Fold this sequence. Notes:
CATH architecture: 3-Layer(bab) Sandwich
Order of helices and strands: EEHEHEEEEE
Number of helices: 2
Number of strands: 8
Strand content: 35-45%
Radius of gyration: 14 Å
Number of domains: 1
Structural class: alpha+beta
Largest sheet: 5 strands, antiparallel
Distance between the termini: 27 Å
CATH topology: Archease, Possible Chaperone, Chain: A, domain 1
Oligomer: single chain
Helix content: 25-40%
Shape: globular
Amino acid sequence: MPKYTIIDHTADIGIDVFGDTLQDLFSNAGFALFDIITDLSTVECKVKHSLNIIGVDKEQLLVNWLSELLFLHDVKNLLFKNFCVNQLSDYQLNADVSGEVFDEKRHIIKTEVKAVTYHNLSIIQKDQQWKTRIIFDL
């Protein structure tokens, strides 16, 4: 099964993300975000960040997680490739992410993602498989 699939959505981009565990789901959502932004085959893991994210529920936690990754991309010019969610509850996430600073000689930006939205956001578990739908504002 793929980590994610792109779904049709007017003016924005939507994805369905899959995972065997909730931790896999959050890791795969981070991967999908940066796979949409750039060609991850050109990104090396030179910089590591440890992140602690909180939320009132799983949905807000997911939006806060992806928004923090997008913030680090926007403010520090970072492209992330590896996403390791070490601890995850309904309210808190601890993860290590790695990647590198954007280098215009080696990296291209395929899609400019402005924000993570709550529009049609869902996280469900069905038949031992987790799935979420996320819409990104472009």
